[in-house]
Amino acid sequence: MNELTGLTASELVRLIKGKRASCVEVAQATLDWIAKTDKSFHSFLSVAENEVREQARRVDQSVARNEDPGMLAGVPIAIKDNMLVKGWPTTCSSKILSQYTATYDATVVSHLRSEGAILLGRTNMDEFAMGSSTENSALGPTRNPWNAECIPGGSSGGSAAAVAARMATLAIGSDTGGSIRQPASLCGVLGMKPTYGRVSRFGLVAFASSLDQIGPFARSAEDCALLLKVLSGHDPKDSTSMNVDVPDFTAGLQGDIQGLRIGLPKECFSDGLHSEVKSALEAACKELERLGAKLIEISLPHSSFALAVYYILAPCEASSNLARFDGVRYGLRSAEAGTLVEMYERSRDEGFGPEVKRRIMLGTYALSSGYYDAYYTKAQKVRTLIKQDFAKAFENVDAILTPTAPTPAFKIGEKTDDPLQMYLSDVFTIPCNLAGLPGVSIPCGFSSGKLPIGLQLLGRPFEESVLLKIAHHYLTAAPWHKAAPPFCAEAN
Ligand code: GLN
Q1: From ligand 1's centre to the CA of 70, what distance in Å?
Q2: Tens digit of pLDDT for each residue in 235-278?
Q3: In CATH, what number does 3-257+466-490 get?
Q4: Are residues 213 and 98 in contact, defined by beta-carbon separation less than 8 angstroms?
Q5: Where are the domains of the chain?
Q6: Residue ID of nearest Cα to ligand 1 atom 10
Q7: Per-residue pLDDT at 176
Q8: Coil, strand or helix at 186
Q9: What is the pLDDT of residue 323?
């Protein structure tokens, strides 16, 4: 790590705008650090070296001309490989998209470009964002910067690891059931899933459209607020994007949290919780109380059904969304096929990995006539009950605190043979997606094995500011987010 790659985005922007560092210098330091480091972790699928230097030169020029270079001037950012960047391959870490090149920018990518961010490259992920460990990538797993024998979480594991290892100052990911928050927690960084509809999904390859949301990875609450501001906003190209005000999330960090009511769902703090996760959370609760927050026990009685509901609805939506990968329009086409039907079958058989096939089968089954009402309709009804539980809880509290993940990072290979165990990694993050709420994971300690632990804050729709403010105050008092993986310091 060098001095520049260790800085936060807010610090970098101040330096660059103040002409105390050049973007080219920052970009080169980042590229050098990636070249040195990513061999051990495999966060990136590709790094756009020449483009990085070119983008940096342009921002330097606008600084030199005293133009406004943008809110993220010169900040290196990594992009999960399911968001389109014009001219870059977008593979969703799947063989089926191995030959696909994006023909336009996702809306979030356009926003990043217009604010002067430097797009570094594409990050590894579980194939089509299905997974919790990044082991379902067709291109090989990503490793956790805190311990290379462990998974970084998933599905946005490449983005989380890149930010944790200081290879990217910021990153974006997508979160359908926890894919930003869970890897953020396991890698010791901040990760936020905004309210459904806050950020445009245009140009995000769809997994489960009623749950998917793009969001930031960062190393401070200030950076998370800054990036969220850039990503947010109404987009006529996404019919589920909401036309609501985008507050100044950075200004919202100020003020105190005196008297703020934080709910602790009793269902999340049961005896089954990993003891070290539990004690880290208890310590965090004490700290929040000391800062003036009021902790209140609450109940979310239907949350125990969330995992089951998710594993019906998400595969149903995925089976429909993934029907477009037919060997005709995108990427891979089997060379073996003689007839049209054979081409569909063989391209899909060769192109999709085992977890994606499992989801397509689950979804197709649950949507088939005769089973539709018993599974899909029933799951939608329970989804409503889960949503109502939250609405009721938010009558009495301003935010809800839970663990992000039930355990710290586990070993590579530990859960690959047991899909149900893998699915349980998202037990605490999934309810938030089903209810469309904002959620953030922030670092709150370490296990005895020196692996990061995260806590999750959930808020009312469009109240990301409340969560960021709590995060900011907590981390100012307990700066867990400042810890870097040991190899970063050694390499300094
Ligand atoms: N791990 C969950 C799944 O496999 C969530 C993934 C996500 O949020 N994209 O579906």
Answers
A1: 33
A2: 999 999 999 999 999 999 998 999 999 999 999 988 778 999 99
A3: 3.90.1300.10
A4: no
A5: 3-257+466-490
A6: 130
A7: 98
A8: helix
A9: 96
